[in-house]
Amino acid sequence: MNELIRLLAYMLCIAAFLGLNLAYLGWVERKGAGHFQRRTGPKEVGPYGLLQPLADGLKLMSKQLVVPANADKLIYMAAPVLIMVPSVTLFVAIPFGENLVPREFNFGLIMMFAFASVAGLSILIGGWGSGNKYSLIAGTRAVSQNIAYEIPMLLTAINIVMISGSLDLNEIIRQQGSYIWNWNVFRLDKSILMPVSFLVFFICSVAETNRTPFDMGECEGELVAGYHTEYGGMGFGLYMMAEYANLVIGASLITILFLGGWQSPIGILPGPHWFLLKMYFLIWVFVWIRWTFPRTTFWGLLNLSWKYLIPFAMVNLLLTALFIKVI
Amino acid sequence: MSGYFKDIVTGLKSLVVGMQITNKEFFTKPITLQYPHQSVKMYPRYRGHIELVKDPETGRNRCICCGMCEKGCPSGCITVKSEKKPGVKGKVLTAYILNFTTCSLCGQCVENCKPEAINFSNEYNLASTRREDYIFDLLQKLHPEGVPEPEVDPELLKKEQEKEEAAKKAAAEKKAAAAKKEAAPKAPAKEGGESKAEEKS
Ligand code: SF4
Ligand code: SF4
Q1: Which residues does A contribute to its contact with B (CB < 8 Å)?
Q2: For B121-139, how does the pLDDT look when each residue is reduced to its tens digit (9 = 90+)?
Q3: pTM value surpassing 0.80
Q4: Which of A262, A306, B31, B79 is the most exposed place for a label (fewest CB within 10 A)?
Q5: Vertex A12, ends A11 and A18: CA angle to 5°?
Q6: B3 lies in a domain?
């Protein structure tokens, strides 16, 4: 019975949290995009355009779902759902507070990465099922990018696992103390390259969430709209929502692994508010980056991963191993 | 190898510079012009549809109704309507119809107009869903509160009236003379010739 209530509470809370976030992150992004370029962003629907997400949702929902003639119908319809499923599922493992975690997994970190790669797969499926060459190219690009960036991401994650000796996300947070210098970013006693490690992980997260400057999967201007070119109405809406869900998950993961999760930076009042503060700050930085930098070339993107991020991640891994063994 | 690290340092530096720039822009005021609520002041050299020029002295248009604009327009989109009014020198413009749907803004009409009675306007807010909205009467546009009556020159009016009366008198005399002639017996062939001449005059 207790389990059932817990399950229901989780479902309700996550649905509310996700719904609010997915709608209003879109608004934040558009406002940010506007103001970073000295425009105003949405402002006509409601005060400060605050009802804009509602209007967008209504519009998307009232559209007809058109399946292109040479699309693979089953795959085409399944892909937007498939991309949403892992994103929503992942929230089950995120510890928002010490006791505010839907379910504590002792392998939470692995689960995170496992489900995150399903999202890459659904992008490929969407591109393939559309029966459109541009979508297909975008899908393959997104996958090769995800593969290239998962390697340094995992290598840096192993760092953290080595330091804390646990795959449990809550345990990882607990081991980072309640002062800013105890967070994994600044734990120079574990490895002097920890800040670099953080940077590598951050860059990889931007790439994993398929955001500019690494939005090879979308590439407006090259591939029309990338893997969701053929999607209209709520199919497109689901893709958009999944993008923001992945953004929230990416920011949460950085917060958990490097910024001490719900730990307070000044030693007082640890709790979910710190987690949300850090997460939203990171999301803001993501938005900031997106509207500052132009897209890299595909070649430059792979180059960055294989020539810079992976070597650095490896060196850092060795250093951490050395520090742990020696000190 | 040194180039490798130099690349990283300069690359990161350039990224930081870029982020600083957008950050600065974020806190400056947006320069968006909220178009339907506000609109820009058009440059004086902008060529909108043509308009009649208001003479600052008389407050009326300067058109002499010569019709050169109408004749010169390659798209045939101008119609000048004019009439003779008693006591006014020359013809008086009663309507200047511009069919803007076919105007190519070539400027031939402005070029052709000797008294510089027409010019390009600065109007650019011309969106409409009805074709009829693009048929302008430029005279109405020049005087939206009502076209003023032309100035009547009393001397000219008097002269004209005198002339008219003289003409009337002459006509009456002619008529009387004709009646007299008709009263007298005459050959039918001659009568036909006379009526033809009358038609001509
Ligand atoms: S601008 Fe050219 S096309 Fe337009 S009314 Fe004048 S002469 Fe005609
Ligand atoms: S050419 Fe000028 S003066 Fe002549 S009818 Fe046209 S507008 Fe009037």
Answers
A1: 32, 34-40, 288-289, 291-293, 308
A2: 888 888 888 888 888 888 8
A3: no
A4: B31
A5: 85
A6: no
